[in-house]
From TrEMBL:
Annotated keywords: Activator, DNA-binding, Transcription, Transcription regulation
InterPro entries in alphabetical order: LysR_HTH_N, LysR_subst-bd, WH-like_DNA-bd_sf, WH_DNA-bd_sf
Lineage start: Bacteria, Bacillati, Actinomycetota, Actinomycetes, Mycobacteriales
Span of domain HTH lysR-type: 1-57
Protein name as catalogued: LysR family transcriptional regulator
């Protein structure tokens, strides 16, 4: 049994509703259901009655009670270990967002060096949804996210950087010959985006903004991360993607800005509002001070 699976079960047992529990955990309902089934197979019996409504079995009630004790003990062990580590060489765990501008984690590292002499970063990669889960599970101290994203009140967040987005496509795409594209020119073209569950707020915001500027794109049935999209596009002159000018110069691809620059992505730094670790508090203070001055 993994701690994350146990946390999934405890939240579901508290909510007694798969969709609400999945939303609270920032995962999809099918993912939650699959993980609970894995847990049930490992433990040898059902933990829940699913129909006509979700209820705990006797085994589920036992796991809820003991599982909460395990999670509390684990959280306490992590807090005590981190406090002890601060007395030696402070280590901060940064949730590194996939595809983040390279200068942003470098700047955070620089602020850490200045605010916490001898401090170092440990990086954990993932999507926005992954980073929110890591933060909630106390697996990272700070997390980089793409906004908009709704966070529980126990988290704080500040915008840290913005990038203009344009159209990424094969150099053989019919729109590739233009130096600048009107959003309306994208109408009817198939657009490959990342999976909605990885950053639902940004996914919906991008499509809404495009539609608002007259770009009636066709959302592709294929969903993939940015790196995979860049690998696919050179051989697919019939589809487009979205990205920043950082993709300029990649073989077989072109990047074209949109007239009026209607698309932008904002990167935010998030952390638990009740910061107890002195090293984390020092970095957060330095980071928010710099962001406030911009």
């Amino acid at each position: 049994m993994e701690l994350r699976q146990l946390r999934y079960f405890v939240v579901l047992a508290e909510e007694l509703h798969f969709r609400r529990a999945a939303e609270r955990l920032f995962i999809s309902t099918p993912t939650l259901s699959q993980q609970i089934k894995v847990l049930e197979r490992e433990l040898g019996g059902p933990l829940l009655v699913r129909e006509p409504r979700v209820e705990l079995t006797a085994a589920g009630a036992v796991l809820l009670r003991t599982g909460k004790d395990v999670l509390r003990a684990m959280d306490d062990a992590v807090r005590q270990t981190r406090r002890a580590a601060v007395a030696g060489a402070p280590v901060l765990r940064l949730g590194l967002l996939n595809g983040v501008p390279p200068w942003l984690p470098a700047r955070i590292d620089s602020l850490l060096t200045a605010a916490v002499p001898g401090g170092s970063l440990v990086l954990t990669g993932g999507t926005t949804a992954d980073q929110v889960r890591f933060l909630d599970d106390d697996e990272v101290d700070l997390a980089l996210l793409r906004t908009p994203v709704e966070l529980p009140e126990r988290f704080a967040q500040r915008a840290a950087a913005r990038e203009e987005l344009g159209v990424v496509m094969s150099e053989r795409h019919p729109l590739a010959s233009a130096a600048l594209l009107d959003p309306a020119e994208l109408s009817g073209h198939e657009l490959i985006l990342f999976a909605r569950e990885s950053a639902a707020g940004l996914h919906d915001s991008l499509l809404r903004t495009l539609a608002g500027h007259g770009a009636r794109v066709r959302l592709s049935d294929s969903a993939m991360g940015h790196a995979q999209m860049l690998a696919v596009l050179p051989s697919r002159p019939d589809v487009i993607g979205l990205g920043s000018s950082r993709v300029n110069g990649l073989p077989g691809l072109v990047w074209r800005p949109l007239r009026g620059a209607p698309l932008r992505v904002t990167y935010a730094v998030a952390w638990r509002a009740a910061v107890r670790d002195p090293a984390v508090a020092a970095l957060v203070a330095a980071l928010t001070g710099e962001l406030s001055a911009e």
